[in-house]
Queue: 2 jobs
Job 1
Amino acid sequence: MASSYTLSLIFLLTFTINAYSSTPSEPDILLTFKSTIHDPMNHLSSWSNTTTAHHCNWTGVTCITATISSLTLQNLNLSGEISPSICQLPNIITLNLADNFFNQPIPLHLSQCSSLNTLNLSNNLIWGTIPDQISQFKSLKFLDLSENHVEGKIPEGVGSLIYLQVLNFGNNLLSGSIPNVIGNFTELTILDFSLNPFLESEIPSDIGKLVKLEQILLQSSGFYGEIPDSIIELKALTIVDLSQNNLTGVLPSRIGNFLEKLVAFDVSQNNLVGSFPDGICESTRLTSLSLHTNSFNGTVPNTSVANCLNLERLELQNNGFYGDFPNNLWSLPKIKVIRSENNRFSGQIPDSISVASQLEQVQIDNNSFISKIPHGLGLVRSLYRFSASLNGLYGELPPNFCDSPVMSIINLSHNYITGEIPEVKECKKLVSLSLADNNFIGRIPESLGDLPVLTYLDLSHNNLTGEIPLELQNLKLALFNVSFNRLSGRVPSLLLAGLPALYIQGNPDMCGPGLSNSCPSDNSKQKIGISKLACAVISLALLAGILSLAFGFFVYRRSSIQNLETGIWRSVFFYPIRVSEQDLIMAMDEKASRGSSGALGKVYIVNLPSNELIAVKRMPNFRNQSFKTLKTEVKTLAKIRHKNIVKILGFCHSDDSIFLIYECMEKGSLGDLINKGDFQLSWSIRLKIAVGIAQGLAYLHKDYVPHLLHRDVKSKNVLLDIEFNPKLTDFALDRILGENAFQSSSDSKSGSLCYMAPELGYNKKATEQMDTYGFGVILLELVTGRAAEGTDSSEDSLDVVKWVRRKVNICNGPVQVLDPKISSSCKQEALGMLEIALQCTSVMPEKRPSMSEVVAALQSLGSKTRVHHPEMSV
Ligand SMILES: *[C@@H]1O[C@H](CO)[C@@H](O)[C@H](O)[C@H]1NC(C)=O
Ligand SMILES: *[C@@H]1O[C@H](CO)[C@@H](O)[C@H](O)[C@H]1NC(C)=O
Ligand SMILES: *[C@@H]1O[C@H](CO)[C@@H](O)[C@H](O)[C@H]1NC(C)=O
Ligand SMILES: *[C@@H]1O[C@H](CO)[C@@H](O)[C@H](O)[C@H]1NC(C)=O
Ligand SMILES: *[C@@H]1O[C@H](CO)[C@@H](O)[C@H](O)[C@H]1NC(C)=O
Ligand SMILES: *[C@@H]1O[C@H](CO)[C@@H](O)[C@H](O)[C@H]1NC(C)=O
Ligand SMILES: *[C@@H]1O[C@H](CO)[C@@H](O)[C@H](O)[C@H]1NC(C)=O
Ligand SMILES: *[C@@H]1O[C@H](CO)[C@@H](O)[C@H](O)[C@H]1NC(C)=O
Ligand SMILES: *[C@@H]1O[C@H](CO)[C@@H](O)[C@H](O)[C@H]1NC(C)=O
Ligand SMILES: *[C@@H]1O[C@H](CO)[C@@H](O)[C@H](O)[C@H]1NC(C)=O
């Protein structure tokens, strides 16, 4: 009773004072503040003089004893102007406007807020330089301007902010060097200049004065020079991130001194050198612990103070460190991540690594460790990645090497490990195992077939013997490499059908498709698993049958026996061809592969029993299209009848793969001809090819219903028949794969970058103009005789578009870019084609002609001069 009475008295008093003094009331101040703010989502709807809610209950407002102490308007999509009116709130301590869209210079007028100690403008669109008057914010303790567009030099004025505890200028566009005032920030706990790529500064040497500093975050900026020795004075540090700068020199010699509280230490990707300071993380207690490692139960006796006991992450990768890797680091009680790849560290991995009971990740590839792999490693139950390729590891793999139940990646390739590969039992989460290029002997362990998610298996370049275990057929491998061993016997056929990237060469005693030895037709060699295998093959053979159907009929087949490895195969043929899925699968060895077209799949030339050739494109089935959609889409493409477009004869698909079957063209692809480096086609044939491709594209764009975009126009996708008539292939695959899968596979496809229109970088929506661009690049290949991507030698490394652009603007340039093999009487036509090519490859999409305009232009080139020149051979 009494207290509520007092409270209302205070209300009354405040109200009275506000009413009679000249200062507006707090709600009015808030409303004035709101009036300059744009609030599209209406998050501040509670800020209103018509609501009954007390203003202390308005969105983002916090009060202490009924006066406003804090405004937290974070992530509300606000923009507009930050009005100084807010400083009329007498007791406002915190103003947090982070994660909005305020687009203005640093609001200096907020320095009038005499009580303000926290200003958070992180992640807005604040721009401009930091004025020297930033010094007016003298009372601030927390200043966060991170993730904005603040630029220019940091003025000395910041040195006045002597009460700062947090200074965050991270992720801006600051330049120049850090002024020599850092020593003034004696209260500072967090210093963040990270992600300012234009800074060009040494780490200030008076950093050692910031004795309360806990976090120093300078990563990915322009820091150079040595790490100042004074850093070792910073005994409160928990996080040090100096990665991705240009730091040089050695680590301060007494760095061990400041490691007591350290949790994360990252100096990766610099140019640091030298050996690691002696005795780092050393203490008598740790050494004695490491003696009886296996009985260690996780409790750290607290008898003496030791360094590094809190260290969780140590990242030293990509520097020039050498010398012995400090032994103690391997057995720290809290260590989770040890990365030191690409240095020249030597030393051993001690058995006491078993003490590191939190260890998750070890990456020490490409160093000079000379060590056995200790038994203790297998005792670390939290380890999910161990990669130590390119070192001097030797001895045998301990049988428990893969015992961590969370182990996911093991890479021990390029070492000197001997003995047999132990059976693996525990690591059911193993995804990737590389033991390539060691001295392993004996058989491939059958238990690998029991690892349910194993996807990458590389055992190449060892001395393994015996047959490939049939158990491996259980796996869904994406890569299987056993090349260059001494394996024998037959390649399990379901491994072939499972469609991993398969490397089996270099095993002279092995037989099967793709190898020089074919297997004796039937033998009793494969005893285990034969019944399952036979079942699969027979069911396929039976149901696949042989078809011979009238033109235009669609057939739909489906094997009834579902089998884990092959899945269900369904096929549809649009033309009478005689082929079974099994024929296809068996025919797809690497020898038959023709012109890889990157991530979108490979093309195989398959010789049918009837001696006809077909081309089969194998693509991953992303399964984001139903079978019905898939069938409809392929049908749409198969119905195209145009002399410059390759016929689709049919397709089959399983859960894993889609095979598109095309007619086969005798002369292969235009791209292959050009890439051979000896491109001899006569001018008239070049012109015929250009016109043909243009007609094919114009047909897809305008005449065919539905209108289609090719989306991968390049010379590799232009096939030539015996008379060099061009036919486009691989068209409109987006409709088969689905837009998302198509885009993500073509994003990862690097091989044909220079055919991609520049606007593809920002405009993901496909357009006709993008096809036109790709066509323009083919025209450039035809007139210059140069491969689109350029070759290795210095000037030639330019792609053809850049190369031509560089030359044509100089005097006589256009004539110089022409293929010298084009006879002089055809030069005029060639120059005409060059001009069309330049229009098609214009950087501005709207300047490119349509494909039907291109057809007309190319045809008129020919007709203008054709009459006067008999066909020339080059
Ligand atoms: C509320 O504020 C608006 C302007 O901010 C003013 O026009 C209106 O009269 C006020 N209403 C009341 C009830 O105070
Ligand atoms: C704020 O709202 C809550 C209920 O939503 C109410 O209990 C409280 O009294 C209000 N506070 C003020 C100061 O109006
Ligand atoms: C901000 O705006 C975007 C789109 O304009 C919207 O998707 C998002 O949900 C909004 N966020 C908030 C917190 O209102
Ligand atoms: C500022 O706000 C951001 C976003 O919420 C937050 O991550 C950051 O810690 C805040 N800065 C300070 C100094 O409190
Ligand atoms: C550093 O702080 C002192 C007061 O502690 C002040 O006199 C001096 O001006 C400050 N330096 C700068 C550059 O502002
Ligand atoms: C790093 O420093 C070296 C020598 O000081 C200099 O040559 C090099 O350009 C610098 N690199 C960057 C990325 O700043
Ligand atoms: C750990 O082992 C020590 C001695 O070996 C024992 O005294 C202690 O109780 C054990 N602690 C736990 C949690 O098991
Ligand atoms: C353990 O050591 C810390 C310092 O590292 C100390 O603060 C704490 O009091 C010690 N605890 C015991 C039980 O001795
Ligand atoms: C190994 O590290 C060195 C630097 O120590 C580097 O130059 C080299 O490229 C690295 N090798 C591989 C294969 O990454
Ligand atoms: C492979 O093993 C055989 C027999 O054990 C041995 O003669 C041969 O030298 C080994 N080859 C390599 C490359 O280690």
Job 2
Amino acid sequence: MTVVNSSCMLCVWDCGVKAHVEDGKFVKAEGLKEHPVTKGYICPRGENLPAYLYSDSRLLHPYRRKNNTLERITWDQALDICAENLNKVKEKYGAKSLAIFCGSVGVENIEVAAFAQRFKSAFNTPNLLSVENICYRLRILARQMTFGRYLAEDFDKAECIILWGHNPDGSRAMLAETIREKLANEKMELIVIDPKRTALAEKGLHLQIRPGTDAALALAMLHVIINEDRCDNEFLEGYTKGFPELKEHIQQYTPEWAAGVTGIPESDIKIVSRIFAQSNASCILQGINTLDQHQNGFQNSRLLSLLQIVTGNIDKPGTWLTIPFLRMADLRLPMEEKPIGADEYPLFHSVWGRVSPYGIATLFPKAALEGDPYPMKASIVAAANPLVTYPDSALYKKAFEALDFRVSIDPFINETAELSDVLLPACTFLEKDSLGYVYGVVSGEPYAMLRKKVIEPLGESKPDWWIWSELAKRMGMGEYFTWNSEEEIFDHLLEPSGCRDELKNELGVFFAEKEYYQYKAKGFPTPSKKIEIYSDTLKDHGYDPLPGYIEPAQSPVSTPELFKEYPIILVSGARQVEYAHSQQRNIPALRALNPEPLAEMHPATAQRYGLVNGEKVNITSPKGTVKMRLKTNEAMMTGVVSVPHGWGLANVNQLTNIETREPITGYPDFKAILVRVESASY
Ligand SMILES: Nc1nc2c(c(=O)[nH]1)N[C@H]1C(S)=C(S)[C@@H](COP(=O)(O)OP(=O)(O)OC[C@H]3O[C@@H](n4cnc5c(=O)[nH]c(N)nc54)[C@H](O)[C@@H]3O)O[C@H]1N2
Ligand SMILES: Nc1nc2c(c(=O)[nH]1)N[C@H]1C(S)=C(S)[C@@H](COP(=O)(O)OP(=O)(O)OC[C@H]3O[C@@H](n4cnc5c(=O)[nH]c(N)nc54)[C@H](O)[C@@H]3O)O[C@H]1N2
Ligand code: SF4
Ligand SMILES: [Mo]
């Protein structure tokens, strides 16, 4: 028996894992107590890593689709077929007709995304359509445009925490434990803003909010804090630009008005504003994607920043903290051509000369199906499952079907791979060395970890970097892919970070101290060198320089006619600890814990529509219908149904749409659309 100290990459939290290996077989996963952050914690997915690795559903050889069946082929054949077809598409329609999709695994495992970016620019297509166009980058951008750089949530020493559209019991279980410990051992105020009374909401002050109206609440909180003179005036005068304009702007957004919009009593809005402003260190823990995937997405993020700013909760322990990013080498090559959507969403594409490597994923179907702005003819989908995880799945399916050639790079045959012409078997992170560093970005710590290989790749599966490199070599682009081992890749990627050698310790973890009050010496790297409460950058691009409130695109208020036919508000994608997105449904132990998707609804709402707990219901939006079991739950807000995402056969993205996009970033609306729920028994 040997033990490999590694970490889990099934989501961003990168929990340390002790992998027990017996006769070359990974037999047991345990939390790694020595890990500086996760200290021995792993969730049920982590405990089931051996079952994930050895799952019967693993794709272990290359395949091609012929006469609608899968035919096993050799790596040589597979790579030749890909090279020939991709070159054909390039010759006929130009390089930009290739779309490369990369999912959240690509974010969590830097080598996966870095090689996709390298390949994209070597091939000369600008169209990398990453999950970053539906998750997280929006809030990074909003904070960058406000502070000049990304500030992270440094909650350890917080005396007031707001969980705003965030339920860590599902999405970040380690944090949920920390919050419970803090509540038990320290004087701490917990405020939860959520349409559902979550388990943590039971432990604090709960504001039950109508989905999609968070901006109204935030504006009213600013109204209370500013008008009651609860601001940190010294901080505002010294380090910010645009506070007088904000003060004037928020006068229209009274708590009384916000109560009407959000459904939260006016008195609660006032109480929460005061607690937040009065605490010594207040920290909003913003839903990781929840508030982004809305009409108000960008301005939601701006507003939460403004709440931190006016109360001076910046860069001090327990607040939002300037994080010293570990700098990684950029594998992109210079490219002139802009991706789809760069003109429509210019700030997503580039801010102050910092160019994003991603196009607007929600515009892909239009390009593939209508040739607008130009035809999209081939795809490589690596570590993503857009057919389930992107909005309007039926439309995405049509779009993929319309392509001339499709490649999938994945350790499993997911729904998107089922449509592919060639399936290339990637190994999992347990079968290669890889690099985790996103945790540091999310948590504000200079952190990186070398995840050590636990076993050799199963079957003929290969690491992502090898697959991209070999494909590139067959296509005459070998000069850009000269690395021969993971060792060489990490030497290169980590060179600018200066922490390569430190990662060679036994745990493979680099973990530095946080630095507070950096702004006192360095200011803020915005054009004005101050925090931009009022954003000229937004104004110059035709957007509101100070955030306001927009009703959700579909709502009882904005679309009353639609509401008559679809009278329930759907929120989707609340995380469940057993699964990451569309993955792990094939692991029996996890499936036993969470056997089927459940639509959650308040019993009074169910009764109103003649529905009973446990029955199968049809949930219908203007886009389609999905069928699943109903679970009544008094914790839900009335008039709302909550449906998990990632279930292939009851896919909530059959209901979502790509038409109502967030105006600055093109993000889809996953959190507040209208549906009707009916009994499926007749
Ligand atoms: N309605 C609704 N839809 C949503 C959301 C929502 O809240 N509501 N959330 C959205 C969000 S925030 C996100 S981030 C997306 C996630 O969307 P995706 O990233 O598309 O989702 P996953 O199902 O995790 O797909 C990851 C794929 O990568 C494969 N994989 C795992 N490891 C590796 C590897 O090492 N190499 C390769 N090549 N492949 C690997 C897995 O087998 C899986 O097929 O979903 C979004 N979709
Ligand atoms: N187990 C597991 N963990 C994951 C993932 C996973 O797939 N599985 N995915 C990871 C990824 S990629 C992401 S992006 C994160 C997502 O993480 P978050 O975006 O933080 O999502 P959750 O923590 O699930 O919390 C969502 C909560 O928001 C509430 N909510 C819904 N709509 C609204 C609204 O309009 N306003 C407010 N205030 N609340 C609302 C829901 O009721 C729910 O309780 O999770 C990460 N962690
Ligand atoms: S899946 Fe679980 S064990 Fe793995 S990193 Fe995420 S929270 Fe940690
Ligand atoms: Mo995400």
